[in-house]
Amino acid sequence: MSSSNFGTYKRAIVRQIPDSIRDHSEALKDREEQGIPIHEPIDLEKARTEHALYTQTLRDLGLEVTVVPADESTPDCPFVEDICVVVGNKALLTRPQGAARRKEVDTIEKVLTDLGLEVHRIRNKRATLEGGDVVFTGHEFFVGDSACSNPKGHKILAETFPEYPVLAIPLDPPKFHLKGAICMAAPGVMAVGESKWGVRAWKKIQKHAKFTYEPLWLPDKVFADHTCDVIFFNGNLVHCKSQEGAESVKRFAERFPDVNRVELTIGELKKVDAGLTCCSVLLP
After folding, report:
1. 118 close to 90: Cβ distance less than 8 angstroms
2. Is the pTM higher than 0.85?
3. Could you confirm whether 177 is annotated as catalytic?
4. Using CA atoms, how far apart are residues 182 and 253, in angstroms rounded to an integer?
5. Residue among 77, 228, 278, 279 flagged as catalytic
């Protein structure tokens, strides 16, 4: 995908929610290990209602959506973004940090192949990469150097898409994906969280990026706001609802008065640290 048609998509992939996410999401184990309070359990009926509205919203905005069935053996499978990176007609199947999540890759490989993409796959057993760590700007990649994605994974990303520079952004826990700190809100405009992770990422981007970007600063409390996690495509900006971040919605409105903005929530899945981008992969 060239910068001239950045944010132009025709299709999306989503994956349904298994019962097992309620008690076995990796996020629950991560929170326990880091001493972070665990939310009350996911209301599965509510989560599925929100996910169905999320899916329908993508359709209403013009995308052809492929819905992949849930797999009870992979509790976090709705977070399909982590399993591949797609630019143009080329897809890189990632290698998630958690062994349980690697079982998701075969299913998504078949979906991408059936859709006619040129599919590559990380085979190096020492490499990790998750799509939630990968921000594509239309000009270059920013990728989290995090608990979920390591330099060997970054190297394979760069080799798969050699036409685009790759810049690693350090990210320490409890932030575990780069898109929890920065996201593309429009061509050349980045939504950046006002946290130490967002500030640090922005400073590195300012210093080392090959192209110039403009920041849109947004409130960001760890495991609370996630309002910088937005989806931009085909002239639409999908972002949090006012109830989740009134100040952020105000800033979106002020910065993008002529953009079709859509408020959307996956509130129940936030209990396992999900964001809007997690639940879909967009394809040209």
Report:
1. yes
2. yes
3. yes
4. 18
5. 278
What's at 62, amino acid-wise?
Answer: G
d(CA 101, CA 3): 31
Q: Are 104 and 77 in contact (CB under 8 A)?
A: yes
What are the C-alpha distances in Å from 198 to residues 8, 20, 229, 243?
Answer: 26, 32, 12, 22
Closest by Cα among 115, 119, 118 to 105 = 119
Residues in the chain: 284
Nearest to 284 by CA among 57, 62, 56, 7: 7
- Of the listed 120, 177, 226, 239, which one is catalytic? 177
Mapped onto helix, strand or coil, the DSSP state of residue 135 is strand
Residues 204 and 199: their CA atoms lie apart, in Å, by: 9
Distance CA 79, CA 57 (A): 17
Task: Report d(CA 173, CA 25) in Å as an integer.
Answer: 17
Strands of 104-197 (E only): list them. 118-121, 134-136, 141-145, 166-170, 182-186, 189-193
278 is catalytic: yes
Separation CA 21–CA 44 (nearest Å): 9
Dihedral over alpha carbons 135, 138, 141, 146 (to 10 degrees): 0
Please report, for residues 51, 97, 134, 140, the alpha-carbon distance to residue 155 in angstroms, rounded to integers and kept in the order given: 34, 16, 13, 14
In this predicted model, what pLDDT tens digit does every residue of 198-242 receive, in sequence order? 999 999 999 999 999 999 999 976 555 568 999 999 999 999 999
What gap in Å lies between CA 206 and CA 220, rounded to an integer? Answer: 20
| pLDDT tens for each residue of 133-174 | 999 999 999 999 999 999 999 999 999 999 999 999 999 877
Structural element, H or E, at residue 216:
strand 214-218
Place of tokens 């590195």: 204
- Whether 92 and 65 have beta carbons less than 8 Å apart is answered as no
